[in-house]
Amino acid sequence: MAVKRILVVDNEQYIQEVAKICLETVAAWEVLTASSGEEGITKAETYQPDAILLDVMMPDMDGIATFEKLQENPATKKIPVILLTAKVQATDRRRYAQMGIVTAIAKPFNPLELANEVAIALGWKLEN
Q1: Are 61 and 38 in contact (CB under 8 A)?
Q2: For site-directed labelling of 119, which of 54, 74, 82, 84 has its Cα 20 to 30 A away?
Q3: CA dist., res. 116 & res. 91, Å (int)
Q4: CB atoms within 10 A of CB 79
Q5: 24 to each of 56, 65, 93, 125, how far by Cα in Å?
Q6: CATH 3.30.230.10 fits 5-121, yes or no
Q7: 119-123 long-range contacts, CB within 8 A, separation 24+
Q8: Which of these, 66, 2, 11, 56, lies nearest to 30 by C-alpha position?
Q9: How far apart (Å, rounded) are the C-alpha atoms in residues 75 and 91?
Q10: What pLDDT digit, counting tens, does each position of 3-53 carry?
Q11: What angle is formed at CA 12 by the lines to CA 9 and CA 17, rounded to 5 degrees?
Q12: What is the 3-state secondary structure (H, E, C) of the chain?
């Protein structure tokens, strides 16, 4: 079975590193990282990840604007997006769902649970 490829887009280096280590260790997924919305869009086009974990609060282009740009691009439109955000009230979740975002995972997230949360949201089976 092909290894899942995840793109983590977050302006905080620490969050990128924690997510990368956890997803690679727990789920054995290939993890790419990007530090900005622009870099995330470019990497999404180039590498065609199976899913994107996208931070909401980023300078220059926030997660929502990044998601909208991904949706406008035929090459990235079908890639499922999960938001990483401190804001996960019910009203936010409804708005995200209406936009076509798979789900939102609260920050700070439990590193050991992250792969499982992503797998459940996307209907994937973890091999471990």
Answers
A1: yes
A2: 74
A3: 24
A4: 17
A5: 22, 28, 27, 15
A6: no
A7: 119/27, 121/82, 122/50, 122/51, 122/80, 122/82
A8: 2
A9: 30
A10: 999 999 999 999 999 999 999 999 999 999 999 999 999 999 999 999 999
A11: 75
A12: CCCCEEEEECCCHHHHHHHHHHHHHHHCCEEEEECCHHHHHHHHHHHCCCEEEEECCCCCCCHHHHHHHHHHCCCCCCCCEEEEECCCCHHHHHHHHHHCCCEEEECCCCHHHHHHHHHHHHCCCCCC
Tokens of 19: 């997510």
pTM: predicted TM-score of the whole model, two decimal places:
0.95
What is the amino acid identity at position 10? D
Amino acid identity of 61?
A: M
With tokens 């708005």, the residue in question is 95
Contact 82, 118 (CB under 8 A): yes
Residues 6+ positions from 98 with CB-CB distance below 8 Å: none
